[in-house]
Amino acid sequence: MSTEITPDQIRRYESELSERKDASVLERAVKKNGILATAQDDIANVNMTPIFSIDLDTGHVANQKQSGRCWMFAALNTMRHAMKDTFNLPGDFELSQNYTYFWDKFEKANYFYENVINTADKPLDDRKVAFLMETPQQDGGQWDMICAIIEKYGVVPQSAMPETFNSSASGQINSLLNLKLRKDAVEFRELVANKASRAEIDEMKDRKLQEVYRILSYSFGEPVTKFDFEYRDSNKEYHIDRDLTPKTFYDKYVNWDLSQYVSIINAPTDDKEYNKTYTVEMLGNVVGGREVKHLNVSMEDFKQMAIAQLQAGQSVWFGCDVGQSSDRKNGIMDTKVYAKDELFDVDFSMSKAERLDYGESLMTHAMVLTGVDLVDGKPTKWKVENSWGDKVGDKGYFVMSDAWMDEYCYQVVVNKNFMPENLQKAQAQEPKMLQPWDPMGALA
């Protein structure tokens, strides 16, 4: 039986507050400055000095601007870091995020259409149908999704397909695409309800994809198919490589075997055993392409593989909940950066598993680990390359405490070479299917 709040309760709450000697002072401070500024603990600035025992030189920090392409930027950044070292490229060299963005949007439209067709026999209030219609497509993604795009379409330097207004500020294109996809969903569901053949459905899907291609081409430019790669290296020596395609460019200048790079997660919830693999229903972009697959491991294993890859001189893609205990201006991610418990005299603590289970946290952002500070072999803080430009943090770089990684990091991508043999065997298992709304299906 529900109970209402009574006047006696309110009087008791008022009395308790009036008996606190610091209540008036704290009220004035919070009202004037806000919660975070009042709760900020400057000791975090002292402890998070940007000095690291392992520190990779990765050059210029990219800027995703007003778009949600962090996962894509982070992946392309890890690749350009290796290219920079191999080909002596200048520090401001970038791969084209606009090129992979075009194909991701195009493939996501087809992925959405297929999911709509496959669920067309379910009512609109079915949870999976409602999940699909809530956000038909968005900017976010995961590591396996960028791999699926690159494996099918390759990559190009940013000079071959530069940024546009719509790639740098994606609000308008996302609103338009979601309008179109929802409208198309109406028609697909009607076709299925009227017992249309698969050939009839595919014929309509082909027309719809042609329209999507036109919208994307006007917004981002039509994808480049052949180009010359012309640049001066960091020693100012001139180079030109003619008549490249996106696939030949990838093979020559990146040349990663993407099947060797796998997703490692730390999700300490009761429904996910360690050393087991998981996938997520209706999560992906390329129909027939690489599927999302996670290996869940302990935090100790999670960090040791990331450290091994950094020690080998290779940066690490990772996913986290960037908004938690994070000072964007100073570029600090630390569990002690804000003392909100002390400010309000309220216990806000939750375990990592509880935050995942109860919707308090999930992966919201992807960045790149480019360094770590090891003391007696143990990590104390990590160097992070963000994709928000050089006006935040230390010229775009952040410092993350090891305690923050424990609590708010959920995913790293490592080369299998840096995995112990038992985890390589575990990663090869067939994955268990998770529900579409599982927190490990969150898009960075």
TrEMBL record:
Subcellular location: Cytoplasm
Family as reported in the entry's similarity comment: Belongs to the peptidase C1 family.
KW Protease (keyword) present: yes
Statement: the UniProt record of this protein carries the keyword Transcription regulation: no
UniProt entry keywords in alphabetical sequence: Aminopeptidase, Hydrolase, Protease, Thiol protease
Pfam family, one: Peptidase_C1_2
Protein name: Aminopeptidase
Organism listed in the record: Furfurilactobacillus milii
Annotated PANTHER family: BLEOMYCIN HYDROLASE (PTHR10363)
